[in-house]
Amino acid sequence: MSKPEIEAGDSVHPGNPVIVDRYTVAARINHWVTAISLVLLALSGLALFSPALYFLTGLFGGGQLTRIIHPWIGVVLFLSFMGLFFRFFRLNLWERTDSVWMARLRAVLAGDENKLPEVGKYNAGQKMVFWSMSLLILVLITSGIVIWDQYFGPYFTIEQKRIAVLIHSVTAIVAICVWIVHVYAAIWVRGTIGAMTRGQVTGGWAWRHHRKWLRDLVTTGKH
Amino acid sequence: MFTPVPNPTTKPVPAKFGEQDLIRRSASSITPPAKRQTEVAKLIDVSKCIGCKACQVACLEWNNLTEDVGVNTGVYDNPHDLTENTWTLMRYTEYENAESGNLEWLIRKDGCMHCEDPGCLKACPAPGAIVQYSNGIVDFVHDKCIGCGYCIKGCPFNIPRISKADSKAYKCTLCVDRVAVGQGPACQKACPTQAIVFGTKDEMKQWADHRIKDLKSRGFKNAGLYDPPGVGGTHVMYVLQHADKPQIYASLPNNPSISPIVELWKGATKYAGLAAIGAFAAIGFLHQIVVGPNRVSREDEENAERLTEGKSP
Amino acid sequence: MTNSWTDIKNADVVWIMGGNAAEAHPCGFKWVTEAKAERGAKLMVVDPRFNRSAAMADHYAPIRSGSDIAFLSAIVNYLVSNDKIHKEYVRHYTNAAFIVKDEFGFDEGLFTGYDESKRSYDRSSWEYKFGPDGFAIRDMTLEDPRCVFQLMKKHFAQYTPELVERICGTPKDKFLKVAEWVASTANGERAMTIMYALGWTQHTHGAQNIRTAAMIQLLCGNIGIPGGGVNALRGHSNVQGITDVGTLTAAIPGYLALPTEREPTLESHLAKRTFKPLTPNQTSYWQNYRKFYVSFLKTQFGANATPDNEFGYNYLPKLDGIYDCIKMFDLMHQGKTNGLLCQGFNPLMAIPNSNKSREALSKLKFLVSMDPIETDTVRFWENFGEFNNVDPAKIQTEVFMLPVTSFAEEEGSVTNSSRCIQWKWKAADPYFESRTDIEILSDLFVRMRKMYEKDGGKGKDAILAVNWSYKDPLHPSVEELLTELNGSALSDLKNADGKVVRAAGQRLASFAEMRDDGSTNGSMWIYTGVYGPNGNFAQRRDNADPSGLGVFPGWGFSWPANRRIQYNRASADPSGKPWSEAKKYMYWNGERWTGPDVPDYIPTIPPERAVGPFIMNAEGVSRLWVRGLMADGPFPVHMEPFESPVPNLVFPKLKGNPVARAFKYDLEALGTSKDFPIVGTTYRLTEHFHYWTKSVHANAVMQPEFFVEMSEQLAKEKGIRHGQMVRIWSKRGEVKGKAVVTKRLKPFMVDGKTVHEVGLPLNFGFIGETKKASPINGLTSAIGDSNSQTPEFKAFLVNIEPIAGPAA
């Protein structure tokens, strides 16, 4: 048997129902800082991306402020995501069973989890969100710096900036799409949001969606 | 001599064009006016330019700009580049003409070209921050500018500059305020040798022909007009002794057009991107309707309880 | 200018040499671009640097600074030896036919009469041969070996294109192209204008540079015709006016002379200047000198000028020499001067050898500056580090600054290079306590006169005799002053029939109305007519040009007599017909001289009378050989600058101009080519106006910092990088500036030796908005031209080295 797939703070509280600690306070704060940053970035970014959404600059106090704030939120997001990354990356490493899981995507979408291999703390979909966000955010911060004229204007050529702004836009769109998947999954899989609010899920939730993780918690005696 | 515009009277003159004459407005769609105003143009005859910088000073004075006193870096170009306060700049090139064996001191007045298809306007995300009048003048509206610098990326000529003081983009306005009351731009007014002339675009093309004939008679067989079709033509044009080699004039682009990257960014990406976002949201919504929520069952909870109690689930 | 700015558009060839019109006269240069664009004119530029004018030129030829006479003489030789001259013009309108005295000779670069101990010539042999009738002898075939033409041919024969290449470093083919283009205008069908400025004057042989150019124009028949002329481009908006009003120390207004010690009486003064005709029938207009002089005295001394006291001639100072500013500073340096009043003058920057100037100023008791801006001179006593390194504790000179209105804050006239007097109106109120120059000087005069009245003193009579009858003695109006310059009838002026032609009190319409009996006044005859009975013509702004030749007769007033092209009678042949339809200008219509301009001639004299077109000259014709009128010879001679990288190839014995004005101090401050192998030359930049606009922010932005221009070859030789700080020093001082390494300067190959030249813009100093710099005139020498005393700013020797440190 592979080494237990649990993170610091994960634990099981027997009872009726069983309660499982999934995320620590720190992890939750970290997540929500990231989440809020990402939402703000999406809103301000989209405002500058499409004239149709320019009205969103109103949320930030106008065009100039939107332009000023957006990159700074980007910095916050980047740093905050770095926290999440180091917190979560170990259990997000890809495993063979993840490929099986992915191959049975139809069952995933149908919610037919009996047809899927038992999943650790993160399923393959969550891992893909994790890794794609990691990559996208890296690209966004890099390209973002190239077009952050106020501080970095003189260091790049206009041609580099043109390429950067295109990459930044495309990447941001992909990131937003990934974000939609992430949010939708949290809503669709009922009982999930509690993990990021209270930090806890029910034992049934863990049994249904992350059975291997639950087993590991029980086995290692994390009570 | 190209007949100069007479001096204005001291009486107020109503503006000849305004808001109602816009044919393009950044980040917004507008209904262009039924009738386009006569297109205007400034013609810069490099072969007549003595590089005196009177145009630079006139630009500072008319537009009430103050530039910093810099240093000499071994060239006559001062300031060294366009800035938010220097909207026009003489750029000096020492060109050794291999064909004739002569040295040529090419002096090009750099500044906004007022493209018919303005890349700055195309790139600008702020509605109404960049406008184009039907006479061809492209102007920045500073109270709408957000200082994002997209115009710089859109411009094929590297003209706009962001002010360090107010973070807004600045460039030559073609003295839109002077032109509106029937005067030519300040630089043209100050030019002692008529290296800068101003009039309708047709007049300027004719005048350029006249000048090109003269240059050809002096052995400049490639003399020609610089009115690059890649940006739909410009409302600032050059007469060049070597129109086949614009790049020798301090890197004047050979065949400028809005960068394909900018076109892609402001075209397909914008639409495809929003569509993708919409599609993802819609798919989620449909999935919710079709599949319904993925709920934890009573059985799942019991299985979990059994597992924690050490029983087999 | 013999012609006018607007006339340049009529030229077929424009030759710029000894000037850089595009740089220093951008507004006037528009007429060059007009001639090129609308007429197909060719522009050629001869200059040590490929300058802004050269950038516009069809042909550029390089020349080593200070070798212009050799170049120009070779053009003379080319024209004469290839028979490319306008023969009829030369025969009838120049003194080519005049026979020169047998005693006159030339040997080894020196003319007869040279006295080495006095550094001057006895010019008595420089004269024509006269016949028994008292008139000069002529040979109209131009074949007499002693006629001017033959002497000229011989004198210039050695100036070949090969010699030009050896002396000037001008490649032969480039020289020949210039010569060919010049020759293309020697026919009356085409015209060439020569535009020059201080590149010709600021040499120890400057006047001879211009004379040689004048000879070329005469040989081509280019004087007096549209698009022709020898055109001096004046360097200030009103420097023509300041010359006209006679601010030179030996002159009074209108190019009349101040008396010298050897002229104790009015008659003795007039006798030397009231030239009688040298050939029959000539006008010799200076015969009227007496009328102009007496009218001047009547203005100057009013009722105190009477026939009995020679119209106050005795009140005028009698000169023992000339007191130009270089002489003044030399005297000051010797401690012989108490005070200096600088009116719009920044001598620490403007005159040569700034270290000498600084020492001289330190010896003054007081220094007064009347100026709209703070000059470098008024702060000469202050330590500005390396830029003005003095010890203020050791300088006792008291400095007063009197703020003066700027040009835009006062009303008055300015006279441009075209001799056109134009009015300007006040545009703004003066700043704070500033007053006009007129007010300050009037106040000063009135106070001084009171002191003389009370205390007496040297020259009391003259001071008290001065006519100061302005309505308000402290505020003479500009109209009153212009009236004085113009002149008025003091009593009814009657013609020969006794008819009153000008009533007492009326202003004169023309200097022809001036009288020598004290019945007219007018302090500047050449301006008479500008403010005549019909009003102030300087205020005229009619830009109609009926002839299309750029005459603009109703715009301002061009002296003399509103004439736009001088010597314009020469635009017609001896029979009064235009030389060609293309150059038709003034001609005889059977009754009188007519055309678009005011004839430079008595309008009713028919051609048959054979009165020459150069009516100011006693010969009636122009002079290819100038008798004793120039201090350094009737013909030009190739002379090297006093500091030259090479010896005189043609006349090895000549070291500089043998009669140049040189003070002991300055002769001792000369460097040699061994220590200073590089030629330096100074000039101004179009972005600046002298030393003024360095105090103007926008101008400072356009050219912020002193620099030195040099060739890529010199930079490489000295290890100088583009934009690097360099030190330039001469025997007299040093300056530091940025290196502008350029293709526009190339080393000269002078008789097998590589000679480098560096260009040094003069506009920078230690006061103002630009980066601080030492005055460029720290490098230059004060030795001056023998005729004009103008110092040799344009050719001197320096050395150069890089200063360690990063390039900017």
Label this structure with key terms.
heterotrimer; A: 223 residues; mainly alpha; Fumarate Reductase Cytochrome B subunit; three-stranded antiparallel beta sheet; 10 helices; elongated; C: 808 residues; alpha/beta; Dimethylsulfoxide Reductase, domain 2; Rossmann fold; 4 domains; 22 helices; globular
What report would you give on this structure?
- The complex is a heterotrimer of chains A (223), B (313) and C (808).
- Chain A has 223 residues and is mainly alpha-helical.
- Helices cover 65% and strands 4% of the residues of chain A.
- In chain A, helix 5 (124-146) packs antiparallel against helix 7 (158-188).
- The longest helix of chain A is centred in the last third of the chain and has 31 residues, at 158-188.
- Chain B is α+β, with helices and mostly antiparallel strands.
- Chain B folds into 2 domains: 19-266, Alpha-Beta Plaits (2-Layer Sandwich); 268-308, no CATH class.
- Chain B is elongated and about 105 Å long.
- Chain B starts with 21 loop residues before the first strand and ends in a 5-residue tail after the last helix.
- In chain B, the strands form 4 sheets. In chain B, strands 9-2-11-10 form a 4-stranded mixed β-sheet.
- Chain C is of the alpha/beta class and 808 residues long.
- In chain C, strand 28 (748-750) and strand 29 form a beta hairpin.
- The mean pLDDT of chain C is 95.
- Chains in contact: A-B, B-C.
- At the A-B interface, helix 1, helix 2, helix 7, helix 9 and helix 10 of A face helix 3, helix 7, helix 8 and helix 9 of B.
Quick recap:
By secondary structure, chain A is mainly α. In chain A, 65% of the residues lie in helices and 4% in strands. Chains in contact: A-B, B-C.
Explain the layout of strands and helices.
The complex is a heterotrimer of chains A (223), B (313) and C (808).
Chain A: E1 11-13, E2 19-21, H1 25-49, H2 63-88, H3 96-103, H4 105-110, H5 124-146, H6 149-152, H7 158-188, H8 193-197, E3 200-202, H9 203-209, H10 211-219
Antiparallel strand pairs in A: 1-2, 2-3
Chain B: E1 22-25, E2 40-45, H1 54-62, E3 88-96, E4 103-111, H2 119-123, E5 130-133, E6 138-140, H3 150-154, E7 161-162, E8 169-170, H4 176-179, H5 186-190, E9 196-200, H6 201-217, E10 224-226, E11 236-240, H7 260-266, H8 268-291, H9 298-308
Parallel strand pairs in B: 2-11
Antiparallel strand pairs in B: 1-5, 2-9, 3-4, 5-6, 7-8, 10-11
Chain C: E1 13-17, H1 21-24, H2 26-39, E2 42-47, H3 52-55, E3 59-62, H4 68-81, H5 87-93, E4 106-107, E5 110-111, E6 114-115, E7 120-121, H6 148-156, H7 161-168, H8 172-183, E8 192-196, H9 198-201, H10 206-220, E9 230-232, H11 239-244, E10 251-252, E11 256-257, H12 266-271, H13 289-301, H14 325-333, E12 339-343, H15 347-350, H16 354-362, E13 366-371, E14 398-403, E15 412-415, E16 420-424, H17 437-455, H18 460-465, H19 478-486, E17 493-494, E18 500-502, E19 531-532, E20 535-536, E21 557-558, E22 587-588, E23 593-594, H20 664-668, E24 678-683, H21 697-702, E25 707-711, H22 712-718, E26 725-729, E27 734-742, E28 748-750, E29 753-755, E30 757-761, E31 796-802
Helix pairs in contact in C: 4-7, 4-8, 4-10, 7-8, 14-16
